[in-house]
Structure formats: structure tokens, C-alpha cells
Design goal:
The protein is an alpha/beta fold and about 400 residues long. Helices cover about 60% and strands about 15% of the residues.
Length: about 400
């Protein structure tokens, strides 16, 4: 089982263009045919927006690599030589380290991105269903999941948000707690405002309204976000009902004044409002920052926090890679121990047979039994050592091994 060697072949955001990754992409429906076309007894095809790669363990890595490259070339409709330069090939420790790093979200475009482990598990399930996930691959994947668990529990690699929209959603949670009871208002239809709104919905915001001076654009955006439209003429009431306000008007003049937010706060009985101003220049009067209960963040604030998050994740990633390296060493140590097990079992069985034979011949004479056992245990190794001593290089290796096996001085 452990004589097979780990191998990873594929293309990711480091090695290949987006166009090539799109051409190679293997959706769930195509996985059974793709896996069957590899002709490998064990294989997992991991296909995401960042990467398309095959994980396998094989006793002939060169042959396995040839089959994988051919399958990827067929998938992308490209001749294999044209594909070669944008593919990476990793074997043994490098391959296992890569698998552990991917599962731990350390090789993603966004370090710590939480969905990667789920994608690996989904592809694992597809490999099982296709009948190409044997004991070797199961062992590798179990170790990869263990590495990912340790990285998540022992480092802060996924703790800080690293995008502006993610920072906004986290700040909203910091202020209001569980967002399931919160209402949000998107004022304007700018792209960054839409992105922040999407993150708020994903974070659990219960109710989102879109409003804008032009009703048609508000309706179109609301349909895209699957939420409701608020009449712009009722903006004062909308503000009073909103726990979170995202502005994306971009009218190059103030769209929300301190007086408007102050009135909304009084109507809310000072229940706080979290405001995200995504426009440049800003939509919200800077004086809002002086109002008790108003928490205003503009793009510069969000970008600064996102940069801090990326820096902290990078530091955590360095710590996480140390864990991965340790887990890789443990994985190969375990493989080596399993590889030695059959020989150890055979040796123990041989010694036990000699012991039983000595007992039968010696009867109740313990001294005779032990003398017989020692002589028989040492006879064959002694004869072999005499034979090996005729060749100096062989003897030196044998002598060194003998001292290690029996802890001789």
C-alpha cells in the first residue's frame, strides 16, 4: 500500500492564466467522465476558480503524470505540449505539502478563504462515487483534513477579513451582533455598494431595501439582489428603520447630512446606525462622525482595516506553514512505519516458531531451552555476516545496520 508515491499535477492562479483555468475547469457533472478518463486507480480532481489539479498516489509517477496531462489536454481542447509550460508537477513530500496547504487555505488567492476545505471535501465525495478513492488517497485526505483543522484551531489565518466588503460586514457584526435581526438600506446603485450589500446578505442581514433617486435603477438592482425597493421620497423613514446604511450614490456632493442622520437617530431612540460610505468623494457629511450613535466608515477606513487583516493573515500563514511541515513529516513517518510492519510481523513469527521448537526439544530445562533459542536465532545472521564480510562495502553497511538494529556500542 505505501509503495505508491504522492503526485499532484495541475494549473492554478500562480502558474496559469484565467483563460486556461476556465478551459480546464471540470464541473461536478463532468467529474465522473473526467476521472474515468484518467485511467488511474486512485485520483481526486480539484476544480475551483483558483485551480484545476489532480491528486493521486501511484507506483509509477511518470506514467500517472502522462495520463493526467493527456486528460487535461483533452479537457481544454489543447495539444499536450502547449499545456506543459503552464502545469506544475509535484511528487512525494512536495505533493503532500501542497495538498495540506490547499486544504488549509494557505495556497488560495485569498489566504484563509473559508470555502476551500469544503471544495476539497466535495471533490473527495465525487471521487468516492466514481470508485477511484482507495485506501492510499483516503489516508492522504484524512491527513490533509487533520492539517486544516490544526491550522484553523492553532492560528488566526482566517480570523481577520481581508476585503473591503468583508471588513464592512465584520464591522456590522461587531456593532449589532447577530445580523439576522437587522435591517439594511442601500442608498444608490454604485458597484462597491452592491458588493457590500451582497456581503451583508451573506452575513445574515434579514431585510435589505434599495433606494435611489432614479427608481428604475433601484428596481433593477433590487431584482439582482433579490430584495425590495424603498421609495426615495420616504428616505427619512427608511433611515430611521435601518440598522445599517450603505451609500453608493456618487453624486460628487453630500447625499446624507448630519441633520438627516441626527433625526433618524432621534426617531430610533438613539439605537445606533452603522454607515458605510462607498462613494468617492463621499456621500455622507463627515460631521456625522460627531453624532452619538452614528458609526461612519468610508473607503479609506475600510481599506486600512482590510490591509491590516491581510498583514495579520500573512503572519498567521507563516505559523500555519510550520504546522503543515510538521504534519507532512508525521504523514511520511506513519507511512514508513506501516511499510515496516509486514517485515516486523514476519520476524516475530519466525522467532516465536524457534521459541516453540526450543521448548519442545528442551522440555522443562529452561537453561537448555534458552541456549537452543539463542543459538538458532544467531545462526543464520552469523553465517550471513561472514559472507558479507568478504565484500568490504557490503560489510560496512551491514555492520552499521546491525549496530542500529540491536543498539550495539
Amino acid at each position: 500500500m505505501d509503495r505508491v508515491r504522492p503526485l499532484v499535477v495541475g494549473a492554478n492562479h500562480h502558474s496559469a492564466s484565467l483563460a486556461l483555468r476556465d478551459a480546464l475547469f471540470v464541473d461536478d457533472g463532468a467529474q465522473p467522465e473526467f476521472l474515468a478518463g484518467l485511467g488511474l486507480p486512485e485520483a481526486l480532481a480539484l476544480s475551483t476558480c483558483d485551480r484545476v489539479e489532480v491528486w493521486t498516489l501511484h507506483d509509477d509517477p511518470l506514467e500517472a503524470e502522462r495520463r493526467i496531462v493527456a486528460a487535461l489536454a483533452r479537457r481544454g481542447g489543447l495539444p499536450p505540449p502547449l499545456l506543459q509550460d503552464q502545469l506544475y508537477r509535484l511528487t512525494d513530500q512536495a505533493a503532500v505539502r501542497h495538498c495540506f496547504a490547499v486544504a488549509s487555505s494557505l495556497d488560495s488567492l485569498v489566504i484563509g478563504e473559508p470555502h476551500v476545505l469544503g471544495q476539497v471535501k466535495a471533490c473527495h465525495r465525487l471521487a468516492r462515487e466514481a470508485g477511484v478513492c482507495g485506501a492510499n488517497l483516503e489516508s492522504l485526505l484524512a491527513a490533509a483534513y487533520g492539517a486544516a483543522k490544526r491550522v484553523r484551531s492553532e492560528t488566526g489565518v482566517a480570523e481577520r477579513p481581508v476585503s473591503i466588503a468583508a471588513v464592512a460586514a465584520q464591522l456590522a457584526r461587531d456593532l449589532h451582533g447577530d445580523l439576522k435581526g437587522c435591517s439594511a438600506l442601500l442608498l444608490g446603485v454604485g458597484g462597491m455598494g452592491e458588493l457590500v450589500a451582497e456581503h451583508l446578505l451573506a452575513a445574515g442581514v434579514a431585510r435589505l431595501l434599495v433606494t435611489a433617486p432614479r427608481l428604475g435603477r433601484a428596481e433593477a438592482l433590487a431584482a439582482s439582489l433579490r430584495c425590495h425597493v424603498g421609495a426615495f421620497e420616504t428616505l427619512a423613514s427608511l433611515l430611521a428603520e435601518a440598522d445599517i446604511v450603505v451609500t453608493a450614490v456618487g453624486a460628487r456632493q453630500t447625499s446624507l447630512s448630519a441633520e438627516q442622520i441626527g433625526l433618524a437617530l432621534r426617531r430610533r431612540r438613539r439605537k445606533p446606525i452603522f454607515l458605510v460610505d462607498t462613494a468617492i468623494p463621499g456621500d455622507v457629511d463627515a460631521a456625522v462622525n460627531r453624532l452619538e450613535g452614528a458609526f461612519l466608515y468610508d473607503l479609506a477606513d475600510l481599506e486600512r482595516l482590510a490591509l491590516q487583516g491581510r498583514t495579520e493573515r500573512q503572519r498567521a500563514a507563516e505559523q500555519a506553514l510550520t504546522i503543515v511541515d510538521q504534519m507532512v513529516a508525521d504523514f511520511f513517518h506513519g507511512r514508513a512505519e506501516r511499510q515496516a510492519t509486514p517485515a516486523i510481523v514476519l520476524l516475530r513469527g519466525h522467532v516465536e516458531a524457534l521459541r516453540q521448537q526450543a521448548l519442545r526439544e528442551a522440555g522443562a530445562d529452561a537453561e537448555k531451552a534458552t541456549r537452543l533459542l539463542v543459538n538458532r536465532l544467531l545462526h543464520d545472521p552469523s553465517e550471513m555476516m561472514k559472507l558479507l564480510a568478504t565484500g568490504e562495502s557490503q560489510w560496512q553497511a551491514a555492520e552499521s545496520l546491525l549496530k542500529r538494529l540491536f543498539r550495539l556500542p
